[in-house]
C-alpha cells in the first residue's frame, strides 16, 4: 500500500513539473498583430498599444458585444475600474463588424481604451492566448510583464495581489 502511494505521489509530481507555465511576455507574433482604434479607425500594432501605456498596470479584456458571458461580467469589470482608477482598461473586441462593436461600446458606456481585433480568432494575438472562449482577462504590470494570464473571470484579476498598490 505504501509503495502504491509512493508511486502515485511520484507520478503526480512528475505531471506537475511538466505542466506549462503561463507566459510573462507576449510573443513577437502577438505584439505584431494589428488592431483598429475605436475613435481614429487607425490600424495599430499591439506593441504600440502597450508602448502607449508603458509604466502603467493594464487590465486587458478580450470580449465581444454578442457574447453573453462578456456582458454578464461587464458590471464586475466596471467595478474594477472604479476600485483601480490608476489602471488602464484595454478592451479588445472580437465583434464581427466594426459598426456593432462601436455602437455597443457607446450603448453600454464602456470607458477605457478600445481596439478591434481585425484578425479575429485566427490572429496572432488570439493564438498566443490559445483563445477558445471569451471573455478573457489578462493583467500586465508596470514593467510590461503578464502577471495574470488568460483568466475567464475578472474576479480572478481582482483577487490577484498584484492589482492593489
UniProtKB/TrEMBL annotation:
Predominant place of localization: other
Entry superkingdom: Bacteria
Keywords noted in UniProt: Cytochrome c-type biogenesis, Disulfide bond, Redox-active center, Signal
Taxonomic path: Bacteria, Pseudomonadati, Bacteroidota, Flavobacteriia, Flavobacteriales
CDD domains recorded: TlpA_like_family
Keyword Signal recorded: yes
Compartment list: Cell envelope
Protein name per its UniProtKB record: Redoxin family protein
SUPFAM superfamilies: Thioredoxin-like
GO CC annotations, alphabetized: cell envelope
Domain Thioredoxin: 26-165
InterPro entries: Redoxin, Thioredoxin-like_sf, Thioredoxin_domain, Thioredoxin_ResA/DsbE_sf
Signal sequence segment: 1-22
Keyword check for Zinc-finger: no
Amino acid at each position: 500500500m505504501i509503495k502504491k502511494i509512493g508511486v502515485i505521489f511520484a507520478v503526480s509530481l512528475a505531471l506537475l513539473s511538466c505542466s506549462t507555465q503561463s507566459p510573462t511576455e507576449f510573443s513577437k507574433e502577438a505584439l505584431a498583430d494589428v488592431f483598429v482604434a475605436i475613435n481614429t479607425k487607425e490600424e495599430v500594432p499591439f506593441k504600440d498599444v502597450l508602448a502607449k501605456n508603458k509604466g502603467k498596470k493594464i487590465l486587458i479584456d478580450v470580449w465581444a458585444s454578442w457574447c453573453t458571458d462578456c456582458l454578464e461580467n461587464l458590471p464586475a469589470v466596471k467595478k474594477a475600474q472604479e476600485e483601480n482608477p490608476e489602471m488602464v482598461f484595454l478592451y479588445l473586441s472580437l465583434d464581427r463588424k466594426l459598426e456593432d462593436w462601436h455602437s455597443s461600446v457607446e450603448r453600454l458606456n464602456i470607458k477605457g481604451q478600445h481596439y478591434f481585433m481585425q484578425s479575429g480568432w485566427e490572429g496572432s494575438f488570439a493564438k498566443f492566448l490559445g483563445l477558445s472562449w471569451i471573455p478573457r482577462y489578462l493583467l500586465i504590470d508596470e514593467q510590461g510583464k503578464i502577471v495574470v494570464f488568460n483568466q475567464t473571470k475578472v474576479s480572478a484579476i481582482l483577487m490577484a495581489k498584484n492589482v492593489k498598490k
